[in-house]
From TrEMBL:
4-aspartylphosphate PTM sites in chain numbering: 54
Organism: Rhodoplanes roseus
InterPro entries linked to this entry: AAA+_ATPase, AAA_lid_NorR, CheY-like_superfamily, Homeodomain-like_sf, HTH_Fis, P-loop_NTPase, Sig_transdc_resp-reg_receiver, Sigma_54_int
Keywords associated with the record: Activator, ATP-binding, DNA-binding, Nucleotide-binding, Phosphoprotein, Transcription, Transcription regulation, Two-component regulatory system
GO terms of molecular function: ATP binding; sequence-specific DNA binding
Protein name, UniProt field: Sigma-54-dependent Fis family transcriptional regulator
Pfam families per the UniProt record, alphabetical: AAA_lid_14 (PF25601), HTH_8 (PF02954), Response_reg (PF00072), Sigma54_activat (PF00158)
Length: 484
């Protein structure tokens, strides 16, 4: 069977395949394969335009697999994804495998789509040329320069100077404190409300430290149940639990020599906290089902929007783990506490939205900025970003954004307050219920099973309420599976 615009994604991580599927949905038909054998079965029966292959897979590297593909199925355009920008295996095998492009992790959705579009266009060009293979064949020196440029670009994106703020902002003091954290190889705990930029600060700390250039990996601890979280972080042996069909390398081992960012650490269970404490104390991990531990050298940077002091006092978070994680605590203030940051942050967001939407909106009218500064932004920078996207989408011309494009709660806060004052008891209850569900969706990274469990609802009941309130599941960090 022939399928137009078909992309084969080869990755042993199910979540990675699904994340790419969501990004390419609507423009490409995505077929997932979780190992080389599955991928070869697909290639034998489907007309595939583009192959997007992960470099690190159990049993065989992506480059090795793509070398065989080039010999047997030369038509598809081949792309490789890796979190190791200086991988010697990739550099050495790039020409032999006929790899068109090297994509680094963490990939950006818009850039990934652009790369796949280019590869698809190249595939069509091959066909129009009578089937002759048209490949990008970079020399090793050229590839090394591209790798160096990518590494340099990543460092610039995550340096402290890239954190947008006003000169008088309290963020300046936060950055000054975080710079000190780069000087010492100790654990850092970043606290603050959701959407304040805790991960961006963590990346800046890593890229300013002596571990810069080594892996920096991210895991949202609130998005997975204990067993899957353990497997994700510590790895597992084949057969360790139902669904463990092969050996898996954990993120602590992937991050060896570098750093790991554990987001929403306050959502972890007491039993998991015990296991994480052992890793921090002993400097070793034990994959699920393994007989022997493995030594790792990883700096831990964690974050939470909870008050861990209160969680410790309530017995929900281990005191000894808290002290291990919070050797160097940093608090990021909410956007409501730094209105002076809204103009420069909004300007940066608008620049990015213009690029993504292919627009040229020059800025904001003064009254628009004043109203944005008067709003308290409970969703912080994430909410501000969504609002600016909406304003650009609603604007008909590339001219400064007017205040009438703002959402009602921002443009007319007094009307929203009056409506709240006159609302019925039922309105208050529904508003509270909606807010709680939204908070749980954000905290659990869109994992439906976990959200339902935390709220004491069935999955069916939760989905019904989400539909009623117009709430959507937005999984981050590559997307979290919800068990369907």
């Amino acid at each position: 069977m022939t399928i137009a615009n078909t992309v084969l994604v080869v990755d042993d991580e199910i979540r990675s395949v699904e994340a790419i599927r969501r990004v390419l949905a609507g423009e490409f038909e995505v077929i997932g394969a979780h190992n080389a054998a599955e991928a070869e079965t697909v290639l034998a029966g489907e007309m595939v335009q583009v192959i997007l292959c992960d470099q690190r897979m159990p049993g065989e590297s992506g480059v090795s697999f793509l070398k065989r593909v080039r010999d047997q199925w030369p038509d598809p355009v081949r792309l490789i994804i890796s979190g190791y920008m200086d991988s010697e295996d990739i550099i050495a095998g790039i020409n032999e495998a006929g790899i068109y492009q090297f994509i680094t992790k963490p990939w950006q959705p818009d850039k990934l789509v652009e790369s796949v579009r280019e590869a698809s266009a190249l595939f069509r060009l091959q066909k129009e040329a009578g089937g002759a293979a048209v490949e990008a064949k970079p020399t090793e020196a050229r590839l090394r320069s591209v790798v160096a440029a990518k590494r340099g670009a990543e460092r610039l994106c995550y340096e402290f100077d890239a954190i947008v703020h006003a000169p008088t902002s309290p963020i300046a003091e936060v950055i000054s404190l975080a710079r000190r954290a780069t000087e010492y190889d100790i654990s850092v705990l970043i606290t603050g409300a959701s959407g304040t930029g805790k991960e961006l600060l963590a990346r800046a700390i890593h890229h300013g430290s002596g571990r810069a250039g080594k892996p920096f990996v991210v895991e949202n601890c609130g998005a997975l149940p204990d067993q899957l979280l353990e497997s994700e972080l510590f790895g597992c042996k084949k057969g360790a639990f139902t669904g463990a069909y092969q050996d898996r390398i954990g993120l602590f081992e992937v991050a060896d020599g570098g750093a790991i960012f554990l987001d929403e650490i306050g959502e972890t269970s007491p039993s998991f906290q015990v296991k994480l404490l052992r890793v921090l104390q002993e400097g070793e991990i034990r994959p699920l089902g393994a007989q022997r531990p493995r030594k790792v050298d990883v700096r831990v940077i964690s974050a939470t929007n909870r008050d861990l002091d209160a969680e410790v006092a309530a017995g929900r978070f281990r005191r000894d783990l808290y002290y291990r994680l919070a050797a160097f605590p940093i608090h990021v203030p909410a956007l409501a506490d730094r209105p002076m940051d809204i103009p420069p942050i909004a300007t940066r967001i608008l620049r990015d939205v213009n690029h993504a939407f292919h627009r040229a909106v020059p800025g904001f009218r003064p009254e628009t900025v004043r109203r944005m500064q008067a709003y308290d932004w409970p969703g912080n920078v994430r909410e501000l970003h969504n609002e600016i996207q909406r304003m650009v989408a609603l604007s008909d011309a590339d001219e400064p954004l007017a205040p009438d494009l703002l959402s009602g709660r921002i443009a007319h806060p007094q009307h929203a307050a009056a409506a709240t004052a006159t609302a019925t008891l039922r309105d208050h209850i529904e508003a509270l219920e909606k807010a709680q569900i939204q908070e749980a969706l954000d905290r659990c990274n869109g994992n439906i099973s976990r959200v339902a469990g935390s709220l004491g609802l069935s999955r069916v009941g939760l989905r019904a309420k989400m539909q009623r309130f117009g709430l959507q599941r937005h999984a981050g960090n590559g997307g979290a599976a919800d068990g369907h």
